[in-house]
Amino acid sequence: MKVVICAGPPTSGKTTVIKQVISRLQKKNINPCYLKIDVLFADEDLIISQEFRIPARKVYSQDLCPDHCNVIVLGDAIQWGEDIGSDIIIIETAGLCLRCSPYIENSLGIVVLEATSGMNLPRKIGPMLSLADVAVVTKIDLISQAEREVFRANIMEAASVSIIETDALHGINIDHIIRIIDRMDSYSAPSLLRGNPPVGTCTICVGKKEIGKEAHFGVLRPLESDIFYRGE
Amino acid sequence: MKIESITIQNGFGRDGQKDNFKEIKLNMCNIISIVGPTGSGKTTFINDIALFADKNTPSGRRILINNEIPSDEFMNNPSCNPISYITQHTNFLSDLSVKAFLETHIKIRNSGAIDIIMEKTLDFANQITGEPIIIWSKMTELSGGQTRALLIADAVIIGNSPIILLDEIENAGINRTKALELLRNYEKIFIFVTHDPRITLLSDYRLIMKKGAISKIIITSEEEKKAVQKISIVDDLLLELRNLLRSGEKISEKFITEQIQTI
């Protein structure tokens, strides 16, 4: 089975890209399954299972950081895909934390970016872009060719990834993604994370609401000096 | 790579009707216009060209460059892209300054010395727009006319591509006559999407679109070429009226009647 992990900022068009990919895979008699990892609400699993009649499910991370949730759940998810006999599992993440990336070895990491999101976006999203294999740029029909080219250059400056510019709504240039999926290797264990999602355990996470460094423990950062550690 | 021709192989319209041709081949220096009512598929047609469609767009058309399927390099490396495309979208979304944006684009298009190319680009743009562009402005702060002028200048000078696609160049405050005059100095293949009779009749031929497909191809006749000069007179009158109104003048019926009689 092949594993594709898809990340990207909210509303960038991840689901639209994935739908186009699924419909093309099905035309080639390849059976995909789909998992959505989200925080509080998602209905993409229902939409995709209804539209394509493929196994689709979701998991909510709720109080757990979605990127950490992703790490924990991936093992079971790949097992599930193998058990139901899928040829490929497509995992769509919520991708909210810009310090994290969900990609693992022996898989295809796709980041979906919208062309309309500002020229500096590629510099702002860190490992979600730099650890991906492919950057899919969506909504190219909404900007000028000149801007498209500058956006592409900014991505290339931030990461060495293949760039595919698409108008996913109309299915334009999706074939390039399919070609990459055709060429990729099947998943094999063990497969490690490509980057570590930084830890999110701190006094704020566990419910302290006071502001200011005096109220907290662990690694702290005052406005005027470097970070320091308070605690045992 | 020297670009000599671009070929469009037929596809389908919205209801599945075929384009009324098998293949259209444009050679260097050809000028063609795509015409038809709004929603007839004009923009889709030149999008196909800009994306080097290979039966992978909804229309199923295929584009060949020099009789061959274009290499991926054209799409992947902007400095190799033989096409510059000026879309109808007259808004820039880029949050960069004009200077920073042009500099980056000159670098990635590999168009030459940054200072010289930038000056040329701004000079071209300022000739066809009302107010001069200030290079420190944000791209998003430019007026509609300035944006369009800059897009055209960018495509022609920075893009410096042998094939230029222009989607409704006549829209939004630019000096159309001046723009056409400047464009004609360049040896390129021009494909215009237009509603403008003057631009249409200046072309070698025009493609008529209907429901997403090309329904007819008409070669501009000698008769039509003569008519263009007359159309220009009418066109210039309208431009003059616009300028009068813009500068706060009033217009009388008598004035218009006189003007029409002179024509």
Task: Characterise the protein shown here.
The complex is a heterodimer of chains A (232) and B (263). With 232 residues, chain A is α/β, with parallel strands linked by helices. Chain A has helices spanning 14-27, 44-52, 66-83, 121-124, 127-130, 145-158, 174-183, and strands at 2-7, 32-38, 56-60, 88-92, 108-114, 134-138, 162-165, 218-220, 228-230. In chain A, the strands form two sheets. Chain A has a seven-stranded parallel β-sheet with strand order 3-2-4-1-5-6-7, with helices on both faces. In chain A, strands 8-9 form a two-stranded antiparallel ribbon. In chain A, helix 2 (44-52) links the parallel strand 2 (32-38) and strand 3. In chain A, helix 1 crosses helix 7 (174-183). The model of chain A has no long low-confidence stretch (mean pLDDT 89). Chain B is of the alpha/beta class and 263 residues long. Chain B is 40% helix and 17% strand. In chain B, strands 5-6-7-3-8-9 form a six-stranded mixed β-sheet, with helices on both faces. Chain B has a three-stranded antiparallel β-sheet with strand order 2-1-4, with no helix packed on it. In chain B, a hairpin with a 2-residue loop joins strand 8 (205-210) and strand 9. In chain B, helix 3 crosses helix 4 and helix 4 packs across helix 5 (144-159). Chain B is globular. The A-B interface holds A 116, 118-120, 141-147, 149-150, 152-154, 163, 165, 170-175 and B 47, 50-51, 54, 56-58, 75-76, 78, 81, 84-87, 89, 92-96, 101, 104-105, 107-109, 151, 154-155, 158-159.
